[in-house]
Write a structure and sequence with these properties.
With 496 residues, this protein is an all-alpha fold. It contains 19 helices and four strands.
Length: 496
């Protein structure tokens, strides 16, 4: 038994910088670089986007208070799943964990498919070779599949070689991401092409049915602009909550967790607002450029500021760092969650083991790799249905964690009245995010598509079926064990 317990323990390898890199790398992905042209500027303009992202950051900081508290109380791999188990019991914990698996694991292949988009943006059609086919309106080429699968395998191997090595790689990628975006900001300030007259319309545009657009103005336009981005802001920050998944591997005081989370959220806020503002300041008449389908506005802006080749290199480095750090971070988060659920008996026990040589959940990592390798064959559009469905898992995790923090504070007589109010506010935000995503509300752009609803239904049915099978299987084993240990069985063995 002692050997088994030793095998299931992690070594403390992660320093504060590594943990910040995990959170920041998961927060910032491909969307931070493509959405200025696709969503942020047209829907909310520069000012509307900045206000919405800032409000979203404050909401995440409110929620992070509960996470920091619960990590100190239950510093075990599994995060929200463990918090739910301790406070609400077996079934709520399983529901929380089941949805979080989908949330974290689906982001691994989704990030890998963005590599093809980056290469296509920098060198059009470079990966368009070999066989190709179409799924959900997306053309999928052999070249894109090979690149995505190659990176997935590479980063799984890095994770298998040990947490410290993975942490070093993640830190390098996160620092590269922050530095390259900072270079773009400094270059924008210094560049003669930058023109503050380009910044409007401040609140975005309304596209007209007959073509063209009008500026969003007035109270209704301003509110519409802010809400359009605020509705997706919570999901823009998904990633800071991956920190507790690796809590057993921290080699520093848990008191630092809240600081690390807040810094990661602030860095994420900076990147979102900076990318959006740079695009507007550099591109003359950006509404027309975007309305006419101009190619990757932020890339075009970077090339205007720094020159075509240097701009492509700097922005390409930033985007690749964001994508790769996302793959690494979500590999770590999903494998630790699966490990924790296996160790606690919510998944097959084989998942709850730690490789003694490298101190990593080897089976869980390999499982994540195998599932992720399916993604590039489905293509980005089809994967987005899974991610839409799965992103509800993070909101469920928010809700469980904040309510668990409130209950634990009352039980242990911890925290001030203000802190308890913060935890309840975080719980309310978590519930609100679930409602916003599931219930169609205007044209906020976060409502499920029909395929996403179908996949959600299938995931719920699969989860219920698996839980029932696991429960019946465990009861059968307990019954067999009880029979073997019964006095009658002992007497029979003596007689034999």
């Amino acid at each position: 038994m002692n050997n088994q317990n030793e095998q299931q323990q992690f070594k403390k390898k992660l320093n504060p910088m590594d943990v910040w890199a995990i959170a920041f790398g998961c927060i910032i992905g491909w969307g931070a670089f493509i959405n200025p042209g696709e969503k942020f500027l047209p829907n909310s303009g520069v000012l509307g986007t900045a206000i919405a992202i800032a409000i979203g950051a404050v909401i995440m900081i409110v929620i992070s208070v509960s996470y920091a508290y619960m990590i100190r109380k239950h510093p075990k791999a599994g995060g929200e799943f463990i918090f739910a188990k301790q406070c609400f019991g077996r079934i709520p914990a399983y529901i929380c964990g089941w949805f979080l698996i989908a949330a974290y694991l689906s982001n691994v292949p989704l990030n890998s498919t963005a590599l093809g988009l980056v290469v296509d943006g920098l060198a059009p059609n470079a990966l368009h070779f070999g066989f190709h086919y179409e799924i959900a309106g997306n053309q999928i080429y052999l070249g894109e599949i090979l690149v995505a699968c190659g990176v997935l395998i590479l980063f799984a191997v890095i994770n298998l070689l040990g947490t410290k090595k993975a942490g070093i790689v993640q830190t390098i990628l996160a620092v590269l991401l922050a530095v390259t975006v900072l270079i773009l900001v400094i270059a924008t300030i210094a560049s003669p092409v930058t023109n503050w007259e380009n910044i409007g319309p401040l609140w975005g545009i309304n596209k007209l049915p007959e073509g063209g657009y009008t500026d969003k103005v007035g109270a209704t336009g301003v509110m519409s602009a802010i809400l359009a981005t605020l509705a997706i802001a919570p999901w823009a920050f998904v990633g800071f909550e991956t920190i507790p998944q690796a809590a057993e591997e921290f080699k520093f005081s848990f008191k630092k967790v809240i600081f690390i989370m807040v810094i990661a959220i602030i860095f994420g806020t900076f990147v979102y607002i900076a990318n959006n503002t740079i695009t507007a300041l550099v591109i003359k008449n950006w509404p027309e450029y975007i309305a006419n389908g101009g190619r990757w506005p932020l890339l075009y802006a970077a090339q205007q500021i720094l020159g075509e080749i240097p701009g492509s290199i700097i922005l390409g480095t930033a985007v690749l760092s964001a994508i790769l750090s996302g793959i690494m971070g979500f590999y770590m988060a999903s494998s630790r969650l699966i490990f924790s659920m296996g160790r606690e008996g919510y998944l097959p026990k084989i998942f709850g083991t730690v490789d003694k040589k490298h101190s990593v959940p080897q089976v869980a990592i390999i499982f994540c790799l195998v599932i992720s390798l399916i993604g590039p064959f489905l293509g980005r559009n089809a994967l987005s249905w899974f991610v839409d469905m799965a992103s509800i898992g993070t909101s469920i995790g928010f809700g469980f964690t904040c309510l668990a923090a409130f209950i634990t504070m009352r039980k242990d007589k911890d925290g001030s009245l203000f802190t308890k109010i913060i935890t309840l506010l975080g719980f309310a935000f978590g519930c609100l995010f679930v409602v916003i995503q599931l219930v169609p509300i205007g044209n906020l752009g976060v409502n499920f598509s029909v395929p996403s609803y179908i996949i959600l239904g299938v995931w719920i049915i699969l989860g219920a079926g698996f839980y029932l099978w696991l429960t019946l299987s465990n009861k059968k084993k307990e019954k067999e064990l009880a029979t073997e240990n019964s006095p009658e069985a002992s007497d029979d063995s003596k007689t034999d």
